[in-house]
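Q: Predict the assembly, please.
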Amino acid sequence: MHRRPHKSLSRAEIQSLFRIYQDSHDPDIKSMLVNAHLDLAHSLARRFINRGEPLDDLVQVASMGLLKAIDRFDPGRNVQFTTYAVPTIVGELKRYFRDRASTIRLPRGLRERSHALNSAIQRFSQEHGRSPGVPDIAREMGLSEEEVIEGLEGAESVSVASLNTSSSEAGDLSLLDIIGGEDKTLKILDERLSLAGAMSALSSREQNLLYLRFIEGRSQTEIAQRLGISQMHVSRLLRRTLQTLRQSLKTREI
Amino acid sequence: MTEEQSTDVVRLKLPHEENMAKIVRLTTAAVASKTGLNLDQADDLQTGLDELFRLFLADENPPLGRLCIRFNLGPEKLEVATEGISHDLFKDNEINHYSRFILERIADRMEQIPNPRGGYEVILVKSLAE
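A: Predicted assembly structure:
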């Protein structure tokens, strides 16, 4: 995932930020604390990389664990933040796998193919600076085009439910907010879509995604590059966001 | 419609059943691949047809009883025409705003014309030029 470059903070500076945050709940301070520890979330996510889930998803889950840890950490106790954060983040990752196991259990082959497809698409996009076609991926992976199409469709099923829960669990700060959202997003979407009420059903991350794709007209590959996630991930998030919006509209109509 | 100028035509006639959505997605992906669309463009088209298929499913009495999708694979553009939706996308309400907004953005051109057989025909065009 994309991480903002940040000045590395000393232990004392971090403790001091935590003390300020505990009193003020200032989102800017929280953002600084998140940035200072994103490497930790990333590194813990990587520990789970061989379990068939895309790294992007794992990093998102780990980042949610990080946000929880920041909210719950008590700087008054004589414990370093990382000592407290590691089990919280790992717990979040384990919970993620447990929840997934209880909802969808896909054949291992399908999950592996989905993972391999994801990697191949990312590799191709990075090397060629454009979104690949099915024949490109088929060549790259030594598969038939039919196998790639089936695999892409299967990858939709591998899509995770966890990402949708992130922003509400994390309070006001979603991952996209950390990466850099648009303040004017909701207003513009409201104006362009005339869906003021229904838009409120979406998290700020989902609103940002719609903004990037449908107002700024960025392609999925461009959004993926900008956010440091895969094109397949963007596709899944967009599909789910549109589903949520449609459902919200239906409810309002009733 | 300019079917005469097309090199290939792929047609689907879909019953009013939710589980047909996967057929639409797979066929769209295969057609998109055949015409040389990249994954971004193929996904856009799937999003558009998914939207139209949902409108069809939302119809309690679809005018033709089924959704007919025709993919015209021309040398310069992929034209997808759907028949069997009674929904007028230009009628002023939130769901129409939403559907039209999505369809206009995923396609290079979108139009809706009254269908003499009932309901409307919605045409999505994707340009195949780089």
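Chain B touches chain A at residues 22, 25-26, 29-30, 32-33, 36-43, 47, 50-51, 54, 93-95, 97-98, 101-102, 105 (CB under 8 Å). Chain B has a mean pLDDT of 90.
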